[in-house]
User: What shape does this take?
Amino acid sequence: MPRINVLPKNIADLIAAGEVVERPSSVIKEFLENSIDAGAKNVTVEIKNGGKTYIRVTDNGCGIDKEDVRKAFLSHATSKISSADDLDNIGTLGFRGEALASVAAVSKIELLTRTENEEVGTSYKIFGGEELELTEAGCPVGTTLIVRDLFYNIPARMKFLKKDVQEGNYIASILENIAVSYPGISFKFIRDGKLNFSTPGDGNLKSAIYAVFGKEYTESLLPVEYEANGISVTGFTGKPTSGRGSRSGQHFFVNGRFIKSPMCITALETAYKNSIMVGKFPPCVIFINLPFSAVDVNVHPAKTEVRFFEEKKIFDAVYQGALNALTQDTRPKASFSVAKAFMPEVVKGEQLKLNEAPEKEKQEIKIEQKSEPKQEVKFQIKKETPVETIKTSLTAPKPETVKPSEIKSTLTLKSNEEKTIDFLETEYVKPQEKKLNISIINSVASSVEKVEKLETTPVIVEDVKEKAVVVEEATIPEFRIIGEAFKTYIFVELENKMLMIDKHAAHERILFEKFKSQPTSFQQMLLVPVTVTLSPDEYNAILENKELLYKAGYDIEDFGDRCVKVNACPTELVDEDIVSITMELASYLSMNGKTVMPEKLDWIYHSMACRAAIKAGNTTTDYELRKFVAELLSRDDIRYCPHGRPVMVEVSKRDLEKQFKRIV
Assistant: This one.
């Protein structure tokens, strides 16, 4: 057996340096962490040739005492921990005591440092792990580290470095993450003599993000704030419309330390499911704060990999934080609570309130009919003329008893004194036999009479059994449908902005949410069941997921010999190709057998919604457009289609005026 040798210090340092110092960016990371731990408020980083030939890191931290300078460059020398128990509660970024020794072993280092208690600073030079000089020097409080000719004594390692631009980008990435994680520190990055970026150091996270990642990235962010089980999640996450082609825009921090965590990535992207475009990834700057004892950062020398002692709690916290942020960003900034008065069903027992009006303008219509119990219908009227209405003049008498037979088709009633009645956004249905039916438009009709306001004294009509109009109370937003482009996009004006709505995407999401909230309630039995022949795998997949499919609105049973019989399907798909739909379902279920049930259901609902939604290019009547827009604006959960595409785009009046040079 070969004899065991104790390696010389210089060789041991070179081996250790291989783990700690992979490239110039590793040097920058270690130095910056030391600067932050030293309490610096200003840090400047300067590099040349991607950090291969020159690196300088200057801070105004506490500095190093002269008698500790030599110790700082010894392996496993650190001021951060002193006992094994300290490893369970690491609160500093650095703690291993390997950085300076490792960097010194593979480069030429010069150190300038001074503490607040010292009148003169210290200069220390160490090349390839060998001390050259330790002298006094004039310098401000803080520390400056200069590294020249990295890997000059390891040519093999030098060959594996990338081009200067690429190495410089690695350094920029490291510095960006650290600058964002500590917004209270001002960072400057100088690259080949040019200022790359500078953060203000004012403690405002968004200011730091703006300085580092730019305006476009910052404007796409939503605030995140969530706390549970002793874990807080703060920061920002991106709007679904700001999805990126890679995960490079995702930044996670644990107790101020930048980490790479597949679990956190999964939690974030799970929150965006059905909200972001497939193949796109949400950007984020998320800070996870938890007790130091709940995370192990001593996993790898680079300290970017960590282990959580309760991963599920971390997953839930990140997921809920991102989900809450998305829930808050569900509509344009226009403020109106409901818009359901344009499209409610005629439901028994509700009251109609069309708009607010002064008391003197609020009037009451009471309708009675002999064959049925008495009841009344109330209208509350706003005097202002709403947008897009057509006046129809109707006349009514002073209060008196009038028989239904005396009500003409034009609603002209006997009276000594006549007044004009204008109904707001209502449809008047001519009485048939002894019934008078007045209702809000609930479906598209070829011709209806639209009117805009009502001013009248009470009118009594005898013997009406049930209420003629029943509509839930709603506040109507003032919006105007400008029109439709390419039979695909609806243009809507409200307040000082214009919305452009993709009707297919919006309808698809409306149906998707309906399917999710009303499982099996939208099932329609087929007049003639449909049989579908499948491959063995698809056949087995359908039979194994019969309950799942039933929950989604399908009633499918075994018909023998690799054939299934479809007895019922969701109502919205009755007119679709049931054979094609069933084969699509079977194919998906056979290829995703291990997928959890909620994800399968989401896919099924998504597929159903996509097929049932109105298609781009389909003709839509004016009444359908108005109902559709009102429904959309009244709901906070319809802002992105299940693919993650936006259903509407907002353009402010100011933006338009700037485009036309009306304002500067």
Summary: Residues 154 and 355 are 81 Å apart (CA to CA). The two ends are 84 Å apart (CA to CA).
